[in-house]
Specification:
This protein is mostly helical. The protein is built from two helices and no strands.
Length: 171
């Protein structure tokens, strides 16, 4: 370039100065941007490292919880099996207890029938022996030899004694 004046009226030196100034300014701007890029690159690297560590922790937690979930599922299945086993055992026990109650009721009915039969036989024996309805000895105030008797056994003894006396008189 020559020292002539250019179209806008500036000389070549002025333009070179502007170019050099702009170049320096642009160079400094680029150098500053490179520093910013380096800072940002380091920040991105640090954040990536941190994110990868968190991801690894999360992965480990997921794997651990997956194992726990499998354990819980296994316990759940075992509990369901135990519940089914218990339901079957309870049902069997209810059936057994119901059958035992039926047998017990049959036995109670048989005992009741036996007691009724014994009562009926006892009533017949009381009437046949000539006792009062409650089974006590019936007084015989008008009898000749047993008026003092208090039981059938006692009356028999009194009659036997009187018979002996009557035989002795007749012999």
């Amino acid at each position: 370039m020559s020292k002539e004046t250019l179209n806008n009226g500036e000389s070549g030196l002025v333009i070179r100065g502007k170019i050099n100034g702009n170049f320096t300014e642009n160079y400094n701007s680029i150098a500053g941007a490179e520093g910013d890029i380096d800072t940002n690159t380091q920040a991105i690297t640090d954040e990536t490292t941190r994110a990868l560590a968190v991801e690894a922790e999360n992965y480990d937690a997921i794997v651990s919880n997956s194992g726990r979930l499998t354990t819980v599922e296994n316990f759940s299945e075992l509990n369901e099996e135990k519940i089914e086993d218990n339901e079957a055992a309870i049902s069997a026990e209810v059936s057994r207890a119901t059958a035992a109650e039926l047998v017990l009721q049959e036995n109670i009915n048989e005992v009741d029938d036996s007691v009724t039969n014994v009562d009926n036989h006892l009533d017949v024996a009381i009437i046949g022996a000539g006792l009062n309805e409650d089974g006590t000895y019936k007084d015989h105030a008008t009898a000749n030899y047993i008026t003092a008797a208090t039981s059938i056994d006692n009356a028999t003894t009194l009659l036997d004694a009187q018979l002996l006396i009557n035989l002795a008189i007749t012999i």
